[in-house]
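Consider the tokenized backbone below.
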């Protein structure tokens, strides 16, 4: 299926010149003079680079041959991340570049979505919400109760996010992986 300018939206997966991309940002522009166009930022699934692309009324882009497969993250051996297909127990190794920022949100045993383009693994998507343990955060001080104030916290994966003052070391919290933000403390 070919996508035209009107079909484009944030999160859509497209293919241009044989390379799969995800639209991360788009803006429909209607200048006072001339035809409307869409200015988009697209992120390559292959190398993670973000480029700007302008789509005009007659431009078409293809739907990529991308298959999403649920796999279990096993471990990171320093050079690569090891995943296992939960249906046939086959293992797959992906490089640090292929996993990218997703590594901040995955822990051993977690189920993730691995994307395949033309039967070749290209990237990993973590669940949109994960539960992680806080391993390090500054202690609370008397008076640190103002609403909206935050402090940095290091999670079990090594990611650092801002959390409210009532969150302590050892607490389990829910994190939005798309925004990298604290949601709530797990009871």
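A designed sequence for it:
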């Amino acid at each position: 299926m070919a996508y035209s300018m009107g079909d484009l939206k944030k999160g859509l997966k497209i293919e241009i010149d044989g390379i799969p991309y995800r639209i991360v940002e788009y803006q429909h522009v209607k200048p006072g003079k001339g035809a409307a166009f869409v200015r988009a930022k697209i992120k390559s699934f292959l190398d993670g680079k973000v480029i700007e692309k302008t789509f005009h009324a007659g431009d078409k882009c293809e739907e990529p041959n991308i298959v999403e497969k649920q796999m279990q993250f096993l471990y990171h051996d320093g050079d690569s991340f090891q995943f296992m297909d939960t249906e046939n127990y086959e293992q797959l190794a992906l490089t640090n570049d292929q996993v990218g920022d997703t590594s901040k949100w995955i822990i051993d045993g977690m189920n993730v979505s691995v994307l395949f383009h033309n039967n070749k693994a290209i990237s990993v998507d973590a669940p949109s919400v994960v539960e992680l343990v806080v391993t390090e955060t500054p202690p609370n001080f008397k008076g640190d109760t103002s609403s909206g104030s935050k402090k940095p916290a290091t999670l079990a994966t090594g990611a650092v996010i801002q959390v409210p003052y009532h969150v302590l070391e050892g607490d389990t919290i829910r994190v939005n992986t798309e925004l990298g933000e604290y949601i709530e403390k797990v009871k």
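The two ends are 46 Å apart (CA to CA).
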